[in-house]
Amino acid sequence: MSLDVGTERTDTMVEKVDRAMFVRYAGASGDFNPIHWNSDFAKSAGYPGVFAQGMFTAGVLGTFLTNWLGESNVRRFRTRFIGQVWPGEAIVCSGKVTKVYEENGETRADLDLEVTNADGERKIDGSATVVVS
User: Fold this and answer.
1) pLDDT tens, 53-71?
2) 75 by DSSP, 3-state: which?
3) Cα 89 from Cα 13, distance rounded (Å)
4) Handedness of CA 74, 90, 37, 20 (dihedral sign)
5) How far apart are CA 99 and CA 56, in angstroms?
6) Domain containing 95: what range?
7) Is residue 12 part of a domain?
8) Which element (helix H / strand E) includes 13?
9) DSSP β-bridge partners for residue 113
10) How many domains does the chain fold into?
11) I need a surface site. Which of 19, 54, 119, 131 has the fewest CB within 10 A?
12) Measured CA distances, 51 to 5, 9, 13, 88, 89 (Å)
C-alpha cells in the first residue's frame, strides 16, 4: 500500500443512527447511562433527547480507519469529541494524509480524521498513525 501526503477518503459509515444502536452499544460496552436511551432522562438533563455515546461514534471512526488501511497497520488512534450524534443523523467519516515518514524501520503516515453528519457538522476530530509499507 502506498499513501501520499494529501490522499483523502470519505465514507458514509451509517446512513441514519437510531436509539436502538445506542441501546445495543450500551449492552456491548456496559455504558448504560440513561442519557443515551431514555428521552425523559436526557430532557431532564437539558438535552433535546437521547444521543450517541461518544465511544460509539469513535468506534465507527475506528472502523472507517481499519476498513481503509487495515487493522494491523494502525499504530496510534486518537479522538476528541466535538458534538453529539443525534438519532436520524448520518455518520460521515473522512481522513487525510498529512505526513509520510520513516520510523522504527517502517514507512508511516499520519492522518487527520473527522466525523461529521450529512450537513457537515463536526462530531469528532481525530488523528492516526498507520504503517504504509
Assistant:
1) 999 999 999 999 999 999 9
2) strand
3) 11
4) negative
5) 28
6) 8-18+53-131
7) yes
8) strand 8-14
9) 95, 126
10) 1
11) 119
12) 35, 26, 17, 10, 10
Residue 40 is assigned to a structural domain of this protein = no
Q: What is the pLDDT of residues 88-116, one digit of tens each?
A: 999 999 999 999 999 999 999 999 999 99
Is the pTM of the predicted complex or chain greater than 0.90?
Answer: yes
Give the closest residue to 21 by CA, choosing from 66, 87, 84, 115: 87
Closest to 58 measured CA to CA, from 88, 87, 89, 82: 82
Residue 80's CATH number: 3.10.129.10
Question: In the prediction, which pLDDT does 68 show?
Answer: 97
Grid coordinates in use for 35? 442519557
Residue 115 is assigned to a structural domain of this protein: yes
C-alpha cell of 20? 436502538
